[in-house]
Design goal:
65% helix; transmembrane helix (chains A, B); two-stranded antiparallel sheet; membrane (chains A, B); CSC1/OSCA1-like_7TM (chains A, B); 4-stranded antiparallel β-sheet; CSC1-like protein HYP1 isoform X4 (chains A, B); 569 residues; Csc1-like (chains A, B); globular; Alpha-Beta Plaits; mainly alpha; homodimer
Chain lengths: 569, 569
């Protein structure tokens, strides 16, 4: 039986070696990518929040004064953020109307060019649609212009500040600016097209409070989700179902019914509920005060991962035994025993889960993109969009990464409990490799450059899986009264956590920021670059709110490259 | 009874208000002190560890090359650290001998100028002491010179790098230097006289391992210390003592004996054991890889504080009830009840503790400095030191701050359980204010500038006391079946922790570093300062190891200002 402990050691060692190798490889890739990158606006820009505007002067003046004083040689320009939520609604309406108008103009059937202006387009007299929409668009655009003028005054005490060198931006980022740490709070700027413009809070205290509220809301969602999990769990425990609903007994005794119910139905129901979760997580993350889609997605990815582990793995594994005695989690010593008792019992459920959720979701949601397809089929009759207007999809990291990582967790925790799961996972991995490779290369268009920043999440999740596996192993050897093997495993989680700590120190800083060496080398390259003056020009306007740009689409032609249309991409 | 909950709220509110006010006051003081300070070496210097020395070149060359490349405008000089432990022993021996020689030369009694060179100076023939010591000193100094030569090659891959501006030092400190985060690790340099020269480990991994080992050792010391605590606890529980040692019954029934034993003896014994702890903590902290006395003392102060709270407060309060059922601590829900049961019962012990430990230690150890006095009385016959050679004592922050904070904790936790403790604490505070004020102004000489960096420790300790008090309050109201009052208190610890979190964000960064605003203002002041060239000259030699300086004390005169003698100060 110490053979088994030995296996656990070897397995953990191999996983840790692979993790180390991959971390080192990805971090070197990240540095290499930085070295080979062209000057980009977000490398030179920081976001400053909590600007202490004195009553006499505007926010813009305050920023100008501060940065010309303290960054005299590197300060380039700034653009103050404005509260443009209303304006954004108006411009997006105008954009839609403009698009519909363009579509109608290209329409050849004259019947469709006129509608009735009464209830549901059924009564009233016929109107020329082109005129109707043209007028509507005109008033909308006038509104936009008026709103733009009024918004110019609504400054939020936050600004994107561009500097002339990467080092300058790094200094502004890393060194506390003012004597009050809650003022002049700096943050890395996202790529210009990645900015999530309608962010609300700029003050330190508001962001902090909204973060706290999001944590509470997240906990609430996670706990409420137990309800469908419990229902699913009830379906796998047929006996329990029969005791609750005795009248079902005759139906459940049919082999086919019971097989469908225990084998396929639970994970299908779970699937449907889980599909609802990623948008909720995105919503929560965007309420946190993140300023870019990339941040929102990264934060949602972590939330989604914890959610999946808690609600799919732990809740499913434990619901039959201890979910109702929730306070057991407050007693750390009992956890290994409980896990060892419950987790192996759910092996068949998770094997079915790999097939129903893993394989089918790979095929349906990743390869065929069923959900967007269904949505577009349902929406088309109402929106009047043309099929050739479909946007290129971006990669939904926040829903895919947690899914893949969860199957990694299943593989690691079940590798010695139920090795039968491994071939299923292997097929999943091979299928996944092929499908994701194809999708990433040919289908998805990246919305922003991740720079490998999702890797630490993958690493942490794998370390967590390893430690969970060790805890279950300790529990199992304990249950089987193999106290020697059980205590042989005890140092392993500690060693794994130390390994993780080492990796954090060795690699994580690279993923958080670029070192001085790279910054200065790139800055020196720029000095010899003749096109840098052009870049500086572009840089000074890169972070202007697209909603504030003047409407320039000519009404008579279909110029899709006008700035207003670009705004929503 | 909700009156009592209300009192707890008011009390917590007042304490938090005072904490906030004080934090803000001290942080403004800290900034003001920085503005008013003259240029000092440690403001311009950083310590670099983990220098990646390639086989072909020396450490010094590597540092020179790196900093001239990446800090071309601000790099000034550097001094590589060398392994000088052996040399330091030799120089300190030489110093002692030199001092003794000087003392003997001033001796007028010719009898004392000669000793017998045999066993204990009793047998053998008389030797002229001056000659004897003179020769000894000569060989010792030759050794020192040889060792200095050989040490010059023993470079540790660490160096103090001085830059020409405070901003330059801050950049080197805050931005990761190389692509490998474990190389070129920078750290704030301490004041030159504050450097703890015999630090061993320069590599990242060694420091990390030694930190881990220190944590383990610290836990061991803390647990082993329970033994004397249990003995003391046995003395306060007379009945328990009688059951263990029935033959003592007749003695213990005498009122005087039992009063002395229960009232005074326990805390006296505890006192004696506690006196042993600060040096142990200093030793542990110095093994952690700290590079300055100030860091060592700050780390020892935190260690000592946790130790005191755990071993004096919790162990004393709980030993009668649950010390033996140690696993109760793994069950968080029971803690309030246990504390509420145990803590009030020990009120009389802690009142006695305030008197015996607080008052007497203030008088004995702070005012009269009994321990150094006893030490010097014991040591004098052996060391031959003169009383006028007594060094000016430095402030032992690591033993005094935890003591004062512990009385703060007693005051906060017992304010509603046993208000009788408050007058005793008030007397302690008044006495303490007068005595400490006198000692700080007239007796102690600061070894280094703390810059208010101990305040966050005080703040955190007070917040901990408040939360502990809330937990005890919840437990007590729970025990008395006042579930309304009990649940009224529940939000209070959460609010207190949120308040603490706010303070961390609002004030802590100021204590960790100076903001860019200050740095640049001070740098600009320097530019207009005509004496800055002289300062730069001094700066480039400020961080040389004193053990490596040439021995320059003239043997015939008593020039106490020679560098060798300064070295040990």
């Amino acid at each position: 039986m110490s053979m088994m402990a030995q296996n656990v050691y070897i397995f953990s060692g191999v996983v840790c070696y692979l993790l180390y190798y991959e971390y080192s490889y990805i971090s070197s890739k990240r540095i290499a990518h930085y070295y080979s990158s062209k000057p980009q606006p977000h490398q030179f820009t920081i976001l400053v929040r909590g600007i202490p505007v004195s009553s006499g002067s505007s926010c813009s003046e305050t920023v100008e004064k501060f940065f010309t004083e303290y960054y005299p040689s590197t300060y380039l320009s700034h653009s103050v953020v404005r509260r443009t939520n209303k304006l954004q609604h108006l411009t997006s309406d105008a954009k839609k109307l403009h698009r519909r108008l363009a579509h109608l103009k290209s329409e050849t059937n004259p019947q469709r060019r006129s509608i009735r202006d009464g209830f549901c387009g059924l009564f009233g007299h016929k109107v020329n649609v082109l005129d109707h929409y043209g007028k509507k668009l005109e008033t909308l655009e006038d509104n936009v212009r008026m709103e733009q003028l009024s918004v110019a005054g609504k400054e939020v005490p936050a600004a994107f500040v561009s500097l002339k060198s990467r080092l300058g931006a790094a200094i502004a980022l890393h060194i506390q600016q003012g004597t009050n740490p809650t003022e002049w709070v700096t943050e890395r700027a996202p790529e210009p097209q990645d900015v999530h413009w309608p962010f609300f809070s700029s003050s330190f205290i508001k962001i902090w409070i909204s973060k706290l509220l999001v944590v509470v809301a997240y906990a609430a969602v996670t706990i409420l989700f137990l309800i469908p999990v419990v229902i699913v769990q009830g379906l796998t425990n047929l006996e329990q179902l029969e005791t609750y609903f005795p009248f079902l007994e005759s139906i459940l005794n049919l082999t086919v019914v019971s097989e469908v119910i225990t084998g396929y139905l639970p994970s299908l129901i779970l699937q449907m509920f889980i599909a609802l979760v990623p948008p909720i997580m995105i919503m929560l993350s965007s309420m946190e005060g993140c300023i870019s889609f990339s941040q929102i997605e990264k934060s949602a990815c972590t939330k989604m991962l914890c959610f999946t582990i808690w609600n799919i793995f732990l809740a499913n594994a434990l619901s039959g035994t201890v979910l109702y005695r929730f306070d057991i989690f407050l007693d750390p010593k009992e956890i290994p025993g409980i896990l060892a008792d419950a987790v192996p019992a759910q092996a068949s459920f998770f094997i079915a889960y790999v097939v129903t959720s893993g394989w089918t979701s790979l095929l349906s949601s990743v390869l065929f993109r069923l959900k967007p397809l269904i949505c577009s089929i349902i929406k088309r009759p109402f929106s009047g969009k043309d099929s050739d207007e479909l946007e290129v999809p971006s990669i939904p990291y926040h829903s895919h990464i947690p899914k893949v990582l969860f199957f990694g967790l299943l593989g690691i925790t079940y590798f010695f409990l139920a090795p039968l799961i491994l071939p299923f996972l292997l097929i999943y991995c091979c299928l996944g490799y092929i499908i994701y490779r194809n999708q990433l290369l040919n289908v998805y268009a990246p919305k922003y450059e991740t720079g490998g920043r999702f890797w630490p999440t993958v690493h942490n999740s794998t370390i967590f899986s390893l430690v969970l596996m060790h805890i279950i192993a300790i529990g199992i050897f304990g249950l089987k009264n193999l106290s020697l093997a059980s205590s042989l495993i005890v140092p392993l989680p500690i060693l794994t956590l130390l390994f993780n700590e080492y990796c954090r120190k060795r690699f994580l800083p690279i993923f958080e920021d670029y070192p001085l060496e790279c910054l200065i080398k790139k800055d020196r390259e720029d000095q010899n670059d003749p096109t840098i003056a052009v870049f500086y020009n572009k840089l000074s306007t890169a972070y202007e709110d697209p909603a504030l740009m003047p409407i320039r689409h000519p009404r008579s032609t279909d110029d899709h490259n006008s700035p207003l249309l670009q705004a929503g991409v």
